[in-house]
Amino acid sequence: MARIAFILLCHKDPKGVIAQANRLTASGDYVAIHFDARANPKDFDEIRQALGANPSVVFSAKRWKCGWGEWSLVAATLEAVRSAIATFPQATHFYMLSGDCMPIKSAEYAHAFLDAEECDYIESFDFFESDWIKTGIKEERLIYRHLFNERTQPRRFYASFEFQKRFNLKRPIPADIQVMIGSQWWCLRRQTIEKVLDFCASRPDVMRFFATTWIPDETFFQTIVRHVVPRKELRTRTLTYLVFTDYGMPVTFHNDHYDLLMGQNYLFARKISPEALRLRERLGALWAAKGVHFPISNEGTGLFRFLTGRGRVGRRFAPRFWETEGSLGRENSLLLVVAKKWHVAKRLTASIRKNTEIPAVDYLFNENNAGLPDLGGVETTVSKRTRHRRALLRLLFEQFESNSLVICLDPSALKLVEDLMQDKADTRILLIDSEFDDDYIRGHIGRVGLAGPETPPEVIDRLLPTVRADLEHEAERLRDLGLLGFHSISPWRSPEDNAVQLARFLDLMPEKARELATTQHLFSD
After folding, report:
1. Which end of the chain, N or C, is surrounded by fewer C-beta atoms within 10 Å?
2. What single DSSP character describes residue 406?
3. Could you tell me how far CA 189 lies from the centroid of its own chain?
4. 415: which residues sit within 8 A by CB, 6+ positions away?
């Protein structure tokens, strides 16, 4: 009978990881865990303490600091695979999972499914001929060296990219391999894993090549497996069910999707919402069940496309089954920097990006250039972003792979602030108080169209007190809401006082908060 070693890559939710490992090992299978070295050390300690005595669980010998699109994700997978193959000699199959995955079949069904055919399951499409990549760069992923992370170091990433393009610093692809692409969620036989590891040991040239490609977790195993295994033994598909939105992001499943998930011809599904507690409970019980019959309908993806089309032709989005629960997630922290002087807020977000690991974007609902990552096109215009604001914010949490996100809002967006503060997420506000001198007020009057180049100066002077009072009233209205999680900094407070507010707002150590509070020219006009 098949016995599966699950390769579990995770970076959050220690209780979920513990439950997942206990569930999977209770069926006679194994789990190899790689917990991101960037994550909270207390979370990893909790996992080790809970699972350390379980003989069917092993931890990677080395933990990598993982970043989306980086080689570190492949390196972390290889570490977990090496630990699993050395520790579990009875494992017949190795199955990639994330912490967001849940079984949608029973263990009994999964073992029988894998026993039925001697093959590997991995998406493996020709990199250049297929249309697997929908947006963004394609061949540039391979022919240029990518030394920086596009999300955490965007300026360096694109500066390096443009430099190589300008001076035609292309590199050859190893001549004897055909680069393939596909989902990183695979299930491979033991003998295939052994061949992959032997290939890694014998081909340092190929390893160096993939180590500086962009998003190698979509190409490395997909290419190497096709290189070392006969095609007749490969099934070009994943056994993990996932649906992608128009913007290339995975759909999240909720409590009302149990029957739909059971009917798909897959063994696991991602992503299951952390708040879908009932769904998680039912799927966990399903894995342990015996004698369950699973009629396969496979209608999920088709239903998704159909309902997406209905939305495009003008129907309301209420029937979209994947948006029935629209929270940003209880586990996420949305950090709102509210400031009338946009340049001050943007200096702070730049400092946050430089001095912390918290992702921070600028006025994403006001300005086209807000420092957003590639979201498949949704980031290109303000109108697209404002159409479904919560969906956009969920995309950003996903893209940054972070439980915290800083965004900038104008204090005039009071209704939006109130709406976001009512979300289930941990939402906090940092109001940046400002002093509005006459020069600033005159500029504001011009920006909002109250006066033009031909307006007499005396008319503008008469407007100054009224406009100043209005700007000051916006901040007062925000204070009057009496919201929990409200913090403020101002140019008339000491850096120490501002640092205390920043530390509470961002959950930072005092010394790191002081770095932000003393950002050069933070409040200057």
Report:
1. N
2. E
3. 29
4. none
Q: Which pLDDT does position 447 carry in this prediction?
A: 65
Pairing of strands 125-126, 180-181: antiparallel
Residue among 222, 308, 301, 291 nearest 269 (CA): 301
Cis peptide before 271 (omega within 30 of 0): yes
Strand partners, 240: 268
- Pair of tokens at residue 129: 């001929």
User: For 256-305, how does the pLDDT look when each residue is reduced to its tens digit (9 = 90+)?
Assistant: 788 888 889 999 998 888 778 888 999 999 999 999 988 887 766 666 66
Distance separating the N- and C-terminal Cα atoms of the chain: 71
Contact 395, 135 (CB under 8 A): no
Q: Return d(Cα 328, Cα 275) in angstroms, integer.
A: 10
pTM of the model: 0.68
Choice between 442 and 416, residue whose per-residue pLDDT is larger: 416
Size of the chain, expressed as the number of residues it contains: 525
3-state secondary structure 77-99: HHHHHHHHHHHCCCCCEEEEEEC
Q: How many whole angstroms separate alpha carbon 344 and alpha carbon 327? A: 30
Q: Where are the beta strands (DSSP E) in 136-274?
A: 180-181, 187-189, 234-235, 240-241, 268-269
Distances (CA, A) of 411 to 182, 361, 368, 419: 44, 16, 19, 13
> 473: which DSSP letter?
H
Beta bridge pairs of residue 333: 404, 426
Locate tokens 């400092």: which residue? 351
H or E segment to which residue 121 belongs:
strand 120-121
pLDDT in tens, 474-507: 778 888 878 888 999 999 999 999 999 999 999 9
Distance CA 311, CA 302 (A): 14
How many CB atoms within 10 Å of residue 289? 12
Residue identified by tokens 């809002």 is: 409
Q: Can you tell me whether residue 244 is helix, strand or coil? A: strand
Question: What single string gives the DSSP state of each residue in 344-383?
Answer: HHHHHHHHHHHHSS--B---TTT-S-S-----TTTTS-HH
Which tokens sit at 171? 């590199």
DSSP H helical segments within 88-171, as ranges? 107-115, 140-143, 154-166
Bridge partners of residue 94, in order along the sequence: 5, 188
User: What pLDDT is attached to residue 248?
Assistant: 59
H or E element at residue 217 = none
The answer to whether 391 and 323 are in contact (CB under 8 A) is yes
